[in-house]
Structures are given as C-alpha cells and as structure tokens.
Amino acid sequence: MELWEKFKNHEIVQKVVNFFNKFTNVKPVLEFLQSPKSIQKSISILLRVFAVIFGIGLFIVWIASWRYINNFRFFGGLGYLVWQLAFLYAGIMITKILYQRFAGIVDLPESEYIITPIIAMMIVTFGEIFFIFMAIMSVPAMLAVWLAGASLTVGSGSIGAFLSMMSFVNPGNLFLAGIFVLILSWVVGFLTLVFARLLTETTLALVSIAKDASILRTQFAEKKK
C-alpha cells in the first residue's frame, strides 16, 4: 500500500492524471445536456436550418416550374404567370413564418417538459403555413383554371400538382370549376389548421394531465409519511 501511495502521488503520475482530466472533462457536456435552454437553442438552430432548406426547395420548384409555361396559349400562359408570381410570394411568406417561429423556440418558458411544447409549436406552425399557402394560392388557382382550362394537367408543374384533385375540369365547366377550386382551397386549408390546433391542444392537455397526476402522487406520498 505504501508503494502504491508513492506511485499514485508521484509528480509524473499526477501530471498525466491532470492532463487526462483536463481533456476528458464531461462536466460541461452534462451541464449542457441538462440545461433546458441549451436543448431549446440546439433544436431551434436545427429547425431554422430546416426552414432555410425548405425555402430553397420551394425556390427550386418555382424555378423548375417555369418551363411548363410553354405548354399554354396566351391566356393560359397569363394565368400560369399569375400562379408563379403568387407561388413565389407564398413561398417567401411561409419560409419566413417557419424561420421566425423556430427562432422563437428559445423564448419558450423553462419547465420540466422541454420537447413537448416544441412539438406542439411545430404542429400548429405547419397547420398555419398550410392554411396561409392555400389562402394565397386560391385566387391564382381559380384564375389559372379559368384561363388555362382543360390544358391544365398533373404534368403542368406546381399548379398541376395543386389541381390534381380537379379532374372534372373541362371546357364546358370552367367557371364553376374555378369557383370550386377557390372555395375548396380555403376549406381544406382551414380544416387543416383546425386539425393542427386540435392536435396541439390534445398534446398539451395530455402533458397537463401527466403533470397534475405527478403532483397528486407526490402529495399522496407526503401524506402517507
């Protein structure tokens, strides 16, 4: 034992131990992982990167969709031009909303539940941007149906994908088809928003129930003592 104590307390051994302790110090890492704000900031950064990538993806779709304008005649091309300009505006709007909402994650109040409020915010945010997109694109979609008519197909770029559900569109029913597209865009967008808020409220309600149950268990345990 004496020999071991001398070896352990030797100057060189102490320097080696201090060196390894210095470069293998896990305390800051553990403190970072246990800090709600650190986790919120990390998730916020990742989601903001996602928002930027999402916006770039929409911009690429917008650029790629321009080639389909040659598939239409003058008035059809005019309707497609309005659609493209509105698509760019809507893309900028929803990307900005995503970025700002995800940046606001760091301002969420600290609590024992870190991830659940973030998930709730994401659900309602995606519902909101879908509603905003459908609302912005509803009028351009209606104009495109009126002006382009039966020449709109699934292969007509982004508007073709948007109107793929409107297979009934034909030259004899263009006016009603356009009105239907306008109304349906708002209805689908609003129902999606309502469903997103329902999911958000359900998630937060379950967390609240779990929290209340935890408090009751704690109080019951204290009474038994």
Explain what this protein looks like in three dimensions:
This protein has 225 residues and is mostly helical. 79% of the residues lie in helices and 0% in strands.
How is the secondary structure organized here?
Elements: H1 2-8, H2 11-23, H3 27-34, H4 36-65, H5 74-103, H6 115-148, H7 158-162, H8 174-224
Helix pairs in contact: 4-5, 5-6, 6-8
Summarize the structure.
The protein is an all-alpha fold. It has eight helices and no strands.
Gyration radius, rounded: 28 Å
Structural class label? mainly alpha
Mean pLDDT: 76
Number of helices: 8
Quick tags:
elongated, mainly alpha, about 220 residues, single chain
